[in-house]
Amino acid sequence: MDFSTLVASQLNAGTILPEGIVIITLMVVVIGDLIMGRSSARWLPYAAIAGLLISIAALYLGWNNPTPMSFLGAFEADNLSIVFRAIVALSTAVTILMSVRYVEQSGTSLAEFIAIMLTATLGGMFLSGGNELVMIYISLETLSIASYLMTGYMKRDPRSNEAALKYLLIGASSSAIFLYGVSLLYGLSGGETALDAIAAKLADASGGQSLALAIALVFVIAGVAFKISAVPFHQWTPDVYEGSPTPVVAFLSVGSKAAGFALAIRMLVTAFALVSEQWHFIFTALAILSMVLGNVVALAQTSMKRMLAYSSIGQAGFVTIGLIAGTDAGYSSVVFYLLVYLFMNLGAFTCVILFSLRTGTDRIAEYAGLYQKDPLLTLGLSVCLLSLGGIPPLAGFFGKIYLFWAGWQAGLYGLVLLGLITSVASIYYYIRVVKMMVVKEPQEMSDAVKNYPEIRWNLPGMRPLQVGLVLSLVATSLAGILSNPLFTLATNSVTTTPILKAAIISPQVNRSLPNVKNTHKTVADLSVSEQLERAKRQ
């Protein structure tokens, strides 16, 4: 077999065209900055956004790819990975819109910031489709290291330096724990690195390895839970969110979290199919702790960024309900909620950036009376916060309804009831901010609002912020009212993905074949491809 045939049939490199476009965009940003210097800041952000949008278009063209496997099985461009990669790329595009004015006002290089963010985007996109341990770990580290750099990007700000140091130390520990877990998987499978090969080897192995497999499961879940900010692996979140540059926080809360959930789904339903009961139990505990602690502690926060940090912890608990359900509706609800969460959360952070640029503070008390000075900002922040709280008819309401319905259908009655209770509690701290902005009398204005500067959108970098705010506001409003296309997209991404078909079919086939265990391998003992074949025969 000559090299050209190998590239065409085995590497199938066309599946990473979207990532290739992001790499080219990254090179344009770096080289353009080297050649043109600071003057390149006028066009580089828009070039980066254009590259990301072209990458999303390439992802759309790759939908229903008949040969999604590439690079000898290391990367899988199935429909599920396409949706998660699009969420990561779109979150970066919106984040760059809100970054231009913020980074320029800090006096640091905008091109370098965008280059680091594009590097993190690459890591998140490859992580969303990684199907092999080395690919997964390198992608995870690319995302993590770029995130550390962005967190400490404001070198003159002591809070940014402190946040970066905490994030680096806790993140390095998390990475080491995750690496130990995947190394155990490598050993237990006899030296396999592809996830489906690991699943097949573990199914053929003796039951004596169950303890080692359980240990590997715990370590891998610890690494994943750190990435999605699930309790008790959330310790970094409040401090990093408060001290980091706000655009970085926005990216971490959406892009990084989406990549973490993509990794969780892909690893748990393939490599850990034999211990599905155990990982369901662990994630149930994580969901309960995240929903309770995230929403309860958020009630006491005085900083808007810390409140949104604990809010994101609670949101991770809600999304985990769909993961635990393990059904078509469950996985679809995860995808749908992350799609709408992208706009409502990034919209909220856009408003926080705009307010901090004009007042220099993010204290919740300083928002008092804002409606009388800045109606657009008040409207945008109110809609995004109410959507995060699940108020109809906004996007967050339909996202939570879909999650809770999927959990109820799967028999997760306790989790769903707890989710409803904590969601009602979350409405309090969201509406508290809205009430403070809207209801306060003129004499009750905060000092920051009394000294509010004249609203000027023609300042350098303010137009992108305005576009990001309006885009998030419109998407958050319309995604709830016109949610059917997003429902369809989320459902199709799940029902057409082979690994999820096998994971969902397995228990049904086992229930219909009660006597198979005595004479043949059970479905849980089969590889993914064998499970699909048996399901078709049934």
Write the layout of secondary structure elements.
Elements: H1 3-11, H2 17-36, H3 44-61, E1 69-70, E2 75-76, H4 79-106, H5 110-129, H6 133-151, H7 158-188, H8 195-204, H9 210-228, H10 236-243, H11 246-270, H12 276-298, H13 304-325, H14 328-359, H15 375-389, H16 395-409, H17 413-438, H18 447-450, H19 462-481, H20 484-495, H21 498-512, H22 516-519, H23 528-537
Antiparallel strand pairs: 1-2
Structural write-up:
- A two-stranded antiparallel sheet has the order 1-2.
- Strand 1 (69-70) and strand 2 (75-76) form a beta hairpin.
- The protein has helices spanning 3-11, 17-36, 44-61, 79-106, 110-129, 133-151, 158-188, 195-204, 210-228, 236-243, 246-270, 276-298, 304-325, 328-359, 375-389, 395-409, 413-438, 447-450, 462-481, 484-495, 498-512, 516-519, 528-537, and strands at residues 69-70, 75-76.
- The radius of gyration is 23 Å and the shape is globular.
- It is built from 23 helices and 2 strands.
